[in-house]
From TrEMBL:
Superkingdom, natural source: Bacteria
Subunit structure: Heterodimer of SbcC and SbcD.
Assigned protein family: Belongs to the SbcD family.
Protein name: Nuclease SbcCD subunit D
Chain's gene name: sbcD
Length: 390
């Protein structure tokens, strides 16, 4: 069978006030054309369908249109919620999705509800364990929904997720192609630098060994960097269809196409999405950028730019930079021009996550306490997981 694996669409993304929806529409059309051309039997969307838990009507419409278009290619479609999504709201789409022949899973139900089965165009059976994102707060509740033995209070998030997958994959055998999809952070994965920090810290990491060797392919989402994970079976992150932020500007957006049978190992190839807009960072003083403008425009003419300007702050500087580069959506004073403590602090803060900033604050104030950091993680998790409740 052939699988098209994608994830982390983040529909409705706004970057520095710039809506990404026009770009996302073009990318979704290109993805659908790839599906028409390559004729996958199954499309898996491994979470983070939306950028926020309260997406706009336009973002919702793009999701419905894209899932319907992918289904119209003749492929079965499975889409799960990620940590950016509102799980119950995704589950509310199930009546529409089922009528359209699409499988969506937004929150945890019974184990049976998360084991999806089907047959390829050529009659090859497949089964897929589809687990949407589960926050730490709901990991214990999820195991209860699966009617498993009550978890001990001090067991880790990984222990609970292991139980969930054990229940889903216990019947995996060679009678069908065995698949798993989840929105997870696996030990050994390399972050794409813009994932939500609270959901990628060590307490959210799970070992690759939770996936049994009988699994033919594991389609993961959450980490934006496309990569293979070492484990007992083929495990992949597809990466997203667009570069979400400047921390990912070196990424090549695309989808993965996977060919696999019960008796042959998965063969994976990456298909780039050329409609995705590039993100680029340029640095220099105003005179240098003026001299280099022609070269920058030639190389990065269609890219969205972040400009680090090596000039002292002054009125009108941003406008001068944007006159040079109309597609510069972010203009910053380059921290390297400062040589005092304030400048060093600015450089240290630039581009850092809330958790890193809080850790710096604790260290600087002499209160570097691991328990306080864990409490911050828990509170930040609760604040950023609204709408993902099972």
């Amino acid at each position: 069978m052939r699988i098209l694996h994608t994830s982390d669409w983040h529909l409705g993304k706004v970057l520095k006030g710039q809506s990404r929806l026009p770009e996302q529409r073009a990318v979704m059309r290109e993805m659908t054309e790839i599906a028409r051309r390559e004729k996958p039997d199954l499309v898996i969307v491994a979470g983070d369908l939306f950028e926020t838990s309260a997406p706009s009507a336009l973002a919702e419409g793009l999701l419905y249109d894209t899932l319907s278009a992918l289904r119209s290619t003749g492929a079965d479609v499975i889409a799960i919620a990620g940590n950016h999504d509102n799980g119950p709201a995704i589950d509310a789409l199930r009546s529409w999705a089922e009528a359209a022949g699409i499988v969506v899973r937004g929150k945890i139900g019974t184990a049976k509800d998360h084991l999806v089965t089907g047959t390829t165009r050529d009659g090859e059976p497949w089964r897929c364990a589809a687990l949407p994102f589960v926050s730490q707060r709901y990991a214990v509740r999820a195991t209860e929904m699966f009617e498993l033995t009550a978890a001990e209070a001090d067991q880790s998030y990984a222990d609970h997720v292991r139980r969930l997958f054990a229940a889903l994959t216990g019947g995996f055998d060679n009678s069908a192609v065995n698949l798993v999809t989840g929105h997870l952070t696996v030990y050994g994965s390399k972050l794409g630098k813009t994932e939500r920090e609270a959901h990628t810290v060590a307490s959210y990491n799970i070992p690759a060994t939770i996936f049994p060797p009988s699994t033919h392919y594991v389609a993961l989402g959450h980490i934006h960097k496309r990569q293979r994970i070492d484990g007992p079976c083929p495990i992949r992150y597809s990466g997203g269809p667009i570069t979400v932020d400047f921390g990912e500007e070196d990424a090549v957006p695309g989808v993965l196409l996977v060919d696999v049978t019960v008796s042959t190992p998965a063969k994976v190839r990456h298909v780039p999405l050329t409609s995705a807009v590039k993100l680029r960072t340029v640095r220099g003083d105003l005179d240098g950028l003026k001299k280099d403008r022609e070269r920058i425009v030639k190389i990065d003419g269609d890219a969205l730019l972040r400009v680090y300007i090596k000039e002292k702050p002054r009125a009108g500087l941003r406008e001068e930079v944007q006159e040079l580069f109309p597609n510069a959506i972010e203009v910053r004073i380059d921290p390297v021009i400062f040589d005092n403590e304030s400048g060093k602090s600015t450089a240290r803060r630039a581009g850092r996550s809330p958790r890193e900033l809080f850790g710096d604050y604790l260290t600087d104030s002499g209160h570097d306490d691991e328990k306080v950091t864990e409490l911050f993680d828990r509170l930040y998790d609760e604040a950023s997981s609204e709408g993902t409740a099972a």
